[in-house]
Write a structure and sequence with these properties.
InterPro entries: DUF1759. Helix content is 67%, strand content 0%. With 247 residues, it is mainly alpha-helical. It starts with a helix and ends in a 7-residue tail after the last helix. The protein is globular and about 55 Å long. The chain has 3 domains: 1-93; 134-197, no CATH class; 200-241.
Length: 247
């Protein structure tokens, strides 16, 4: 048992080190010398690191359910979102202007008449979708805030575009009557938070999901891991909401 725990801690340390190296790469080099394709590749890499960390950390939490393990998870989540946000800032339109200026001299004359705005497209962000299911709100809120809402590079109209592209079902209907404009972004985000930032309902829905977990139809390591992961996800959400889960 002790040896297993030590090996898991070692694996976790390697994953944390890889995440730190990605963060250092994107924050310590000037934007104009960063390779944008490499930034995107590293963004994909840290998503894989998150999956690896979750597996290792879940096993450690099975062995040791102490508060220290929960703090380890929270610390890694914070580092993950901070790194992903830094990468996102560097692949947004404003960050690509330097690269466009360098390429302008090599463009044909007929292309030089186009404005920078005509040439720039919004970067594709891998954002969580949200349909109004309360048990998914915390994940959506934290991801959207880290990548979009607190991203100082994006204009409000761009943030509104990303927000509407994430929503469907009941959540999308809340913003249906709002005109797409920079001034309406803050109103739109506040409307969503006022509807779903309801602690009592969030707690109720996470508990309800736990009671409705389907039993395993057959013995399977992958199905058992999924059951454990889903259960721990909702328990973590309840702890985030201040509910005791140890008793």
């Amino acid at each position: 048992m002790a040896e297993q725990g030590a090996n898991l801690v070692k694996r976790r340390g390697i994953i944390k080190g890889q995440l730190t190296r990605v963060y250092n790469y994107v924050t310590q080099l000037p934007v104009e010398v960063l390779d944008f394709s490499e930034c995107q590749a590293r963004g994909q890499k840290i998503k894989e690191l998150w999956g690896e960390f979750d597996v290792v950390q879940s096993e450690l939490e099975d062995l040791d359910g102490s508060e220290a393990q929960l703090q380890e998870r929270h610390a890694f989540e914070a580092s993950y979102y901070r790194t992903l946000a830094e990468i996102t800032k560097r692949i947004t339109p404003k960050s690509t202007r330097t690269m466009e200026a360098q390429l302008l001299r090599a463009e044909p004359n007929h292309a030089r008449g186009m404005s920078s705005q005509d040439k720039v497209k919004l970067p594709t962000l891998d954002l969580s979708k949200f349909d109004g299911t309360y048990s998914q709100w915390l994940l959506f809120r934290d991801t959207f805030q880290a990548l979009v809402d607190k991203n100082t590079v994006l204009e409000n109209i761009q943030k509104f575009y990303y927000l509407k592209s994430c929503l469907h079902g009941n959540a999308a209907q809340i913003l249906q009557s709002l005109e797409m404009s920079a001034d309406n972004y803050a109103t739109a985000w506040d409307l969503l938070k006022s509807r779903y930032e309801n602690k009592r309902l969030l707690i109720y829905h996470h508990i309800q999901v736990l009671f409705e977990v389907n039993s395993l139809m057959k013995e399977s390591a992958s199905q058992l891991r999924k059951l454990i992961d889903d259960t721990q996800k909702h328990l973590r959400a309840l702890r985030t909401l201040g509910e005791p889960t140890d008793s």
